[in-house]
Amino acid sequence: MTVSTLDDNILNPDIFPREKGPPHRLFDKWRKEDPVHWNPPTPAYAPKPPASPVTKGFWVLTRYQDVFDVSRDAELFSSHEAGFMVWDHDEQTLAQQRANFMGMLPADHSAVKQVLLPPFSPKAMMELMPDIDRIAREIVDDIAKKGSCEFVFDAASKLPVYTFCELMGIPEQYRERVAQCGNGLADVENRSEQSYDPLLELFTICAELSEEKRKSPDRGLLSAMANDKSLNLNQMQLNMFFVVFAMAGHETTRSTAAHFIYQMNQNPDQYKLLLSDVDKHLENAIEETLRFTNTTTNFRRTAMQDTVVGGYPVKKGDKLFLSYAAANRDPSVFENPHVFDITRANARKHLAFGTGPHVCIGARLARMQLHALLKQIVTRIPDIHPVGEPTWLHSIWFNAIVNMPVAFTPERAAR
Ligand code: HEM
């Protein structure tokens, strides 16, 4: 086993901005020499309250198969026991994580999932498609004649906010604030610098809305959750359900769209290929972007018994860090993994959406939104390019671009 130093500690929040994303040089080294790598806790990297510190060491999984196997076994590797994020929570925060759909006991998780699945079915998604296409067109109508914009908020963020609010049944007047709070919350490690508490605000909005939905039920997900007698969710469970959607339904899709534009610019030969036949290449180019960039770089599990992971003995109670980012660059699955190749035959095999019982419920929706928005962009303002370096989130969890000024030939002039 190799020993971490401050320079190769995955908890160092400077790593992502420095490496412009997850630290693949480090992951490659570990995958080769020490694929189930022990990362010690490091007080120097503890985020300021209210974010939780990392007080315990943990195993970093860098091989595809290990991340896959652990994700598939929710009984042995729990998201509930100590939560699903790498940080070690106090009792109150842990109770919130456990109330969250992602952190429920397996039996409760499957009961809630039964109610959640129909709105995400292919048929339900197809019904959303005309709206998604219309909004994607409107977003690009708004920016196309300007010749420049700030991509993350002017272009990438609007569609995910609209769709998750529609799905949830969040009325117009709350939408902007819910999106802001979702962003604030995704910025886990910098919450002490925020002038408000995004978690509390989302709780307040959810309490107000669920009260309304109990009085006047509608077709939205929040109404379904608040009124389902068999689930009988308490207010904390509803709040946490609301929170996970405010975060997961927005930040991830938005950042993937930004990464797509950035990567196309970094790989002009690939962009040229895409533009040569957008209908043929766009779908796989999105999968390759998901594989290559991984907005959600990791989640955590806790071993419920002494066991073996990838040949390494793991003790009951040990923490496992599932690095989707590392798994998606495993050369035993993806040939030349560090090459961005939009024709990669097995790009869709990536674990960017996780796998197993907790696999992303919004994957189909995310793919639809990305396809609709990016098709409008690459066909109408194809010479779009970042101006200067984008700003990366200071985080070890989300690989997010938070600001990316872009320029392009205005649409009218191009025609
Ligand atoms: C590019 C976009 C997205 C990425 C990369 C992404 C990534 C992920 C990942 C890696 C997980 C697995 C968590 C685990 O195993 O513990 C997950 C779960 C989840 N995602 Fe996504 N997600 C995206 C979009 C969305 C959207 C659009 C929604 C909803 C509107 C959504 C809602 C969820 C929910 C509710 C879960 C929890 C599933 C469960 O625990 O059963 N995600 N996502």
Going by helix content, strand content and strand pairing, the class is alpha+beta
Which molecules are bound in this entry?
Answer: protoporphyrin IX containing FE
Q: How many beta-strand runs? A: 12
The coarse silhouette is globular
User: Which stretches are poorly predicted, pLDDT < 50 over at least 5 residues?
Assistant: none
Please list the strands of the largest sheet in the order they lie side by side. 1-2-8-5-3
How much helicity do the residues have?
Answer: 40-55%
How many helix segments? 18
| Rg, Cα atoms, Å | 21 Å
Q: What would you say this structure looks like, in words?
A:
The chain is α+β, with helices and mostly antiparallel strands and about 425 residues long. Strands 1-2-8-5-3 form a five-stranded mixed β-sheet. The chain has 18 helices and twelve strands.
Which descriptors would you attach to this protein?
415 residues, alpha+beta, 5-stranded mixed sheet, single chain, globular
Overview in brief:
The chain is an alpha+beta fold and 415 residues long. Helices cover 49% and strands 10% of the residues. Helix 10 (198-215) crosses helix 11 and helix 15 (278-293) packs across helix 17 (363-380).
